[in-house]
Design a protein that fits this description.
Two copies of one chain form a homodimer.
Chain A lengths: L11 E5 L5 H10 L5 E5 L11 H17 L5 E3 L2 H14 L4 E3 L1 H11 L4 E6 L1 H6 L1 H9 L4 E6 L3 H7 L5 H16 L4 E4 L8 H7 L5 E4 H15 L13 E4 L6 H8 L7 E3 L4
Parallel strand pairs in A: 1-2, 1-3, 2-9, 3-4, 5-6, 5-7, 7-8, 9-10
Helix pairs in contact in A: 1-10, 2-3, 4-6, 4-10
């Protein structure tokens, strides 16, 4: 596959079911400050976590088409559930390079673990999909993977309760079973969770390494762009572009919590 | 309007964005054990709380048509957000009687309060809609209404953490501002919240009366059916019918928590 017709100045397309993917955008911005971003948050249909595979594939293909129409050079699926269910379908549907959030996180976990006992936390959808387990075992079948759904973490993040006593209790409740399994590495398998990283760090054994998928995705984006000679060298001057499928969601308000790029332009996309 | 062509043996149609409306079904069943129920849970598009008014009207009209096609005699909108945004539109779109969850709760609150200081808790969508404030002020403009969004309550209920220490802390966090306003009546303005009724009762001042909209809706259903001579006298033999828009949602599992009617039949409705 050759992507030589693409202009390196084109932006990167990033999508998520809502706002969580902004933690990935933040890491891409930190590592690759020249790159432009077109972000799509499916705020009208959030959350994906409790929807079926076929529904999530439909949504992901629709968003992929939209990002292609915006002239992006690479697509990042910055949503664990969409990656788990729709990565293969999106790869088939586009000629652009596609990066999901699961493989980079799995690779980092396999790299960091010494005990070969890895914990994964995520939404019910991500945990039930066993996406991390499969990705980790593909890299090394000796690894033991212990998963835990943590449905309260997303609303806690969206409430901004990063230091609330209830947050500590909830973190302990979800992570105690994983500590009991003597994990030494914990994958934050949901793009909202990096905002709870400090809180989780305070509550779990200090011997446990936290893997933030956003950081790992940014490294993958860099290497894929390098490989295809698509890294942007010119300095970015245009703002990031944000699209959502419902304006009612507190995207701007929450967005400030997720990253520091100004939210001048949030545009509604109407599907019908 | 005459409804004399309708058979009193027809079931009642109830809809919600997901599973919460089952607390209303439970109260209808308790008060009117003869009545059949056709329930629609929009599990493929849950939650409604962060969606815009026009989106919620579209969804509600689509579900109303579906319930009409199932031959129901009355429609209950067992979702506070859908009631807040779409009650008028649904009433216009159907010749059947329609009951929402807001007015019965507002009426009960006005009836119970002595201090004329009423608290309302609900989702962000319900609180922002000011539906309870408007409904209460329509009944009595002297009332002072204090509202508080409680986004963590729905996931706490769906986790089944009714007696968890974190639940107590979260309840106190949300309700302290309302206690400080010296409310004597608190409307549980979300159909999930009746499952937290005991927990809330333990945490708030004993002088505060809790209003469970489900109970109040059931009373309204009874009086509307009586008025139209549509109360069923024959004993119900058929099971309740449950329809959902996505099967992946833990409807059966959560449903057990919400009520005791067996969940033999949960059917997927595919819109397209």
């Amino acid at each position: 596959m050759t992507l030589s017709h693409l202009n390196p100045d084109l932006p990167i397309g990033v999508f998520d079911s809502g706002i969580g993917g902004l933690t990935v955008v933040k890491e891409i911005k930190r590592l690759l400050p020249n790159e432009g971003i077109v972000y799509f948050g499916d705020t009208g249909r959030v959350p994906y976590g409790n929807k079926s595979k076929s529904t999530i594939i439909d949504y992901s293909l629709q968003i992929t088409k939209f990002l292609e129409s915006q002239g992006v050079k690479l697509i990042v699926i910055a949503c664990n559930t969409a990656t788990a269910h729709a990565l293969d379908a999106v790869k088939k549907a586009t000629h652009l390079p596609v990066i999901g959030v699961v493989d980079p996180g799995a690779k980092a976990a396999v790299h960091y673990t010494k005990s070969k006992r890895i914990g994964v936390i995520g939404t019910v959808g991500t945990v039930n999909s066993k996406a991390y387990e499969k990705a980790i075992h593909k890299l090394n079948s000796d690894m033991l993977v212990f998963s835990q759904a943590a449905p309260l973490f997303v609303p806690l993040v969206e409430e901004g309760w990063f230091t609330h006593p209830a947050t500590s209790l909830i973190i302990r409740e979800y992570l105690k079973p994983l500590e009991n399994e003597r994990i030494d590495t914990l994958v934050l398998g949901c793009t909202h969770y990096p905002l709870l990283k400090s809180a989780i760090d305070r509550e779990v054994f200090s011997s446990i390494t936290l893997v933030d998928s956003g950081e790992e995705v940014a490294k993958d984006v860099k290497s894929v762009l390098e490989k295809h000679k698509l890294l942007r060298v010119s300095k970015r001057t245009e703002p990031f572009q944000y699209f959502v499928s419902d304006l009612n969601f507190r995207f701007k308000e929450l967005g400030k919590m997720f990253m520091d790029e100004p939210f001048d332009k949030v545009t509604l996309v109407e599907w019908q």
